[in-house]
Write a structure and sequence with these properties.
Four Helix Bundle (Hemerythrin (Met), subunit A); Rossmann fold; three-stranded antiparallel sheet; IF-2B-related; NagB/RpiA_transferase-like; EC 5.3.1.29; carbohydrate metabolism
């Protein structure tokens, strides 16, 4: 690892890689704060050396989750204003950008929650998949409006992120029914909405989220249950406007099965994809802090926010 990278950046990168830091918004916030630390602690002799340090730190963070979207969007935001020709000026650029990004991130989730809560009625039951702070923000806002909401929560194997969702919903006073993933179709007739988050949203409105989301969406559409995706704009994947595809991360097989059990089964090949892609035809609405959008219209918002393309400021010039 590059010895110019601050230990706090390396620690953050490790925690993102091992999923101690998880969730798109949490990852983005942690990355921005890590770059801020790199900037404030740098003893670079000149502005070019300073920019080189920041690029190295950003690469260290980026390489932990190269298929994520919120992470590079956070890195772009913090690094894009690093224009000063002096170390102190560039340092101030980074600190101000990081502080502004984190402040906007905090407001964005609250604003998104208010938008999403408008789709939830008093007495509604939702079904969730994985753990999404954006999805929970919608429920929290609805509860604060005085609405009674109940939830059917999928456990979400192999890492059981649904347990985190169940705990948080319980803290909000929402009655929870926890189900095994394979029971989702059985309980779809008992819910009013499927409410999920997103790791990324493509320009055509496709939703990249925790593996199992696509199958749930297909079953929900068959049952006539509307599907709402809660996703801050930092989840939008601007690269897909210029033809880039979204890579699906493959996680360690140890998350699924241990070596001893694997050997007992004859060492079959094990696949552990982290995400899948839900086509836009299975999604009713994408809720963001900027309002709600039909999935096919999300590209309009994407162009407004990012223009027609993106840069990679962590790459050496």
């Amino acid at each position: 690892m590059d010895d110019r990278v601050h230990p706090e950046v390396r620690r953050t990168a490790t925690e993102i890689d091992t999923m101690e830091i998880r969730g798109a918004a949490t990852i983005a916030d942690a990355a921005a704060r890590a770059l801020r630390t790199q900037a404030t602690e740098s003893d670079a002799a000149d502005a070019e050396a300073f920019r080189g340090e920041l690029r190295a730190a950003a690469r260290t963070l980026y390489e932990t989750r190269p298929t994520a979207v919120s992470l590079p969007n956070a890195l772009r935001y913090v690094l894009r204003g690093m224009s000063s020709t002096t170390v102190e000026g560039a340092r101030q650029n980074v600190v101000e950008s990081a502080d502004e990004f984190c402040a906007r991130l905090e407001r964005a989730q609250a604003d998104l929650g208010e938008v999403g809560a408008n789709r939830l009625r008093d007495g509604d039951t939702i079904m969730t998949h994985c753990h999404s702070t954006d999805a929970l923000a919608c429920v929290e806002a609805a509860v604060e409006q005085g609405k009674h909401i109940e939830a059917v929560v999928k456990e979400t194997r192999p890492r059981n992120q649904g347990h985190i969702t169940a705990k948080r919903l319980d803290e909000l006073g929402v009655p929870v029914t926890l189900i095994v993933d394979s029971a989702a179709r059985r309980y779809l007739n008992d819910v009013d909405h499927v409410l999920v988050g997103a790791d990324a949203v493509a320009a055509d409105g496709s939703v990249i989220n925790k593996i199992g989301t696509s199958g749930l969406a297909v079953n929900a559409r068959d049952r006539g249950t509307p599907i709402m995706v809660a996703a801050q704009t930092l989840k939008l994947h601007p690269g897909t406007m210029t033809g880039h595809t979204v890579d699906i991360e493959m996680r360690d097989t140890a998350e699924v099965i241990d070596d001893e059990t694997l050997a007992e089964l004859g060492n079959p090949t094990v696949k552990n994809p982290a995400f899948d892609v839900t086509p836009p035809r299975y999604v009713d609405a994408i809720v963001t802090e900027r309002g709600q959008f039909p999935p096919e219209s999300i590209v309009i918002l994407m162009r407004e926010l990012f223009g027609e393309g993106t840069s990679e400021p962590w790459v050496e010039p």
